[in-house]
Design brief:
- It is elongated and about 155 Å long.
- Helix 2 packs antiparallel against helix 3.
- It has a six-stranded antiparallel β-barrel. A four-stranded antiparallel sheet has the order 3-10-8-5, with no helix packed on it.
- It has four domains: 30 residues; 82 residues, conserved putative lor/sdh protein from methanococcus maripaludis s2 fold; 92 residues, Efflux pump adaptor protein, beta barrel domain (Elongation Factor Tu (Ef-tu), domain 3, Beta Barrel); 152 residues, RNA polymerase II/Efflux pump adaptor protein, barrel-sandwich hybrid domain (OB fold (Dihydrolipoamide Acetyltransferase, E2P), Beta Barrel).
- Helix content is 26%, strand content 42%.
- A hairpin with a 2-residue loop joins strand 12 and strand 13.
- By secondary structure, it is of the alpha+beta class.
């Protein structure tokens, strides 16, 4: 019984050693090496660059109040269309106390002057009717009375504007009504009813009541690296794609190249702009991220090969051309324009030449 157990143990050990030997032997066998076969062909090569940017309306304005006040009513909301001159909001005036006091004082003074001018006029009129004063003296008194009347009206109107934001003689031009200055789409209304707003002055930009833009005239705004800006000229074609709209594409023409660089993450870049062809089939929103593909150089119908076939030795470039007997010969070539995948061959090869491509390692058929 003990001998049988020993034989079994020896057999198991032998099987382990044998399995290990077979495993190491199979792994030590050289892998079968093959190469892809490539071909020199005639094709068009384009060197392109992709510029990242965003979609913006060409004309976007911030609508601001003409007076200080509090938002009493909002008649529009973001996403609605608005016409030039259409009312967006109404303000409740908060008059400046110094200005209000001065306006009230001006009204009181104008009333005093008007009463005196009226008295002088009535006295002069009675004398004039009796032919006791000359026409010249009467005209002077009449003129003073008319001026006092006009000053009283102007002072009262100024007081109403300061106190109420609108005068009784010009209700249509009320400064309490915030109107759109252009026709377009309301992009944003950053205020709410009850918010205080201030008019623009030399000390601040004022409160934006609404942002309005013409969304039928959109542009692509991006930045290109200084190494590529030298290849750009105004009018170059561009293809615009928007990440949020995978099925959208628009052809555009480069219309602006900034004359001054801006530093972005340590690199000098130049701003570029291009007009977008707006499609009614897509809702394009302001601020969409977009890419612009620009063709910088083109080589038409030139001999080209995949760049993976190249071998570099110092400043020289070589390929391995297949001979009729199946062997490969190392040939020096002169290259030209590249699109990152294919490269132009200016000399050294002919159309139809077969080339050795990248290595492909196949496992032994017995292991598959």
């Amino acid at each position: 019984m003990k001998k049988a157990v020993k034989y079994i143990i020896f057999a198991l050990i032998a099987l382990v050693f044998l399995g290990t030997f077979v495993f190491l032997f199979r792994n030590s066998r050289p892998a079968k090496v093959e190469y892809q076969e490539l071909e020199a062909t005639v094709m068009d090569i384009h060197r392109t660059t992709v510029v990242t940017g965003k979609i913006e309306p060409r004309n976007e304005v911030n609508v601001k109040p003409q007076i200080n006040g509090i938002i009493a009513e909002l008649y529009k909301e973001a996403g609605q269309q608005v016409k030039e001159g259409e009312v967006i909001a109404k303000l409740r005036v908060i008059p400046d106390m110094n200005s209000l006091s001065s306006a009230q004082s001006r009204v009181r003074l104008a009333e005093i002057n008007l009463r005196q001018a009226r008295t002088n006029y009535e006295r002069e009129k009675a004398l004039y009717d009796k032919k006791l004063v000359s026409d010249e003296e009467y005209d002077k008194v009449l003129q003073a009375y008319n001026q006092a009347t006009e000053e009283k009206a102007a002072a009262q109107e100024s007081l109403e504007v300061i106190r109420d934001g609108v005068s009784s003689r010009n209700t249509t031009g009320s400064s309490t009504l915030v109107r759109s200055t252009i026709t377009g789409l309301i992009l944003n209304i950053p205020v709410k009813v009850g918010n205080s707003v201030i008019q623009a002055n030399t000390m601040n930009d004022g409160t934006t009541v609404a942002t309005v833009a013409n969304m039928s005239d959109l542009i692509f705004d991006g930045n290109i690296d200084e190494t590529e800006v030298g290849s750009l000229v105004e009018g170059m074609p561009m293809h615009i794609s928007i990440g949020a709209l995978p099925d959208y594409g628009s052809e555009a023409a480069l219309e602006y190249i900034s004359p001054k660089a801006v530093e972005n993450n340590g690199a000098n870049q130049f701003e570029i702009k291009a007009a977008l062809q707006v499609s009614t089939d897509h809702m394009i929103r302001s601020g969409y991220s977009a890419n612009a593909e620009i063709v910088l150089e083109t080589a038409s119908q030139v001999l080209s090969i995949p760049e993976s076939a190249l071998e570099f030795d110092g400043d020289d470039t070589y390929v391995y051309r297949k001979n009729p007997n199946g062997s490969y010969e190392r040939i020096q070539v002169r290259t030209g324009l590249s699109d990152g995948v294919n490269i132009e061959i200016k000399s050294g090869l002919s159309a139809g030449d077969k080339l050795r491509g990248p290595m492909v390692i196949n496992v032994d058929e017995d292991e598959s």
